[in-house]
């Protein structure tokens, strides 16, 4: 196959074909697992922080507030650099992938905590009272009554957070994680066809996010039907 020429733009079709799978492979082997693992840990952290923010103990509230403020007030790129390049100064060394998981999880936790907190607060106070009347304590009411209802409210924004996380994993390339964008950079280093390869990486990111958006839409539709029938 010969390169395709469109005006002043030349598309190296053979390069595009041969580079597509290595870039996609970086996405399947690193980007998607990195996204899922970081989101699961981040969501767990977010749940703890949300409950801390709702605590009646002022000191616990303050700790959660400070953490969320720091995470939301600093760039993810800086957080990645601190985890991967800064911790070795404290004799704590982590692999690039583990460092990326830690930084991304901490970031998700800081942002998703406020989403979960708002979802919990959206549940009518009467639900708490209903739980108390049947003999439940605070933890039981939260686990059995409040959280299931809050989940319906929080799923749409948390789904958006998950999709954004897919794109945020590209920053892991700065600490040498060979994810999707890093693979594109490696191929570009030998071919110097920046426009083609970075556009190809962008296309794969878009495909991932498009598929996730479809899944998100179906989940929300099912939730809407569930809410209307119960």
Automatic annotation (TrEMBL):
Q: Which organism is it from?
A: Sporolactobacillus kofuensis
Q: What is this protein called?
A: Amino acid ABC transporter permease
What are the alphabetically sorted keywords of the record? Amino-acid transport, Cell membrane, Membrane, Transmembrane, Transmembrane helix, Transport
Q: PROSITE patterns per the record?
A: ABC_TM1
Among PANTHER family, the record links this protein to: L-CYSTINE TRANSPORT SYSTEM PERMEASE PROTEIN TCYL (PTHR30614:SF0), MEMBRANE COMPONENT OF AMINO ACID ABC TRANSPORTER (PTHR30614)
Tell me where in this chain the ABC transmembrane type-1 domain is found.
28-216
* CDD domains the UniProt entry points to: TM_PBP2 (cd06261)
Q: Give me the segments passing through the membrane.
A: 28-52, 64-87, 195-215
Pfam name, any one: BPD_transp_1
Question: Where is the protein situated, by its record's location annotation?
Answer: Cell membrane
Name the domain of life this protein comes from: Bacteria
Q: Is Hydrolase there in the keyword field?
A: no
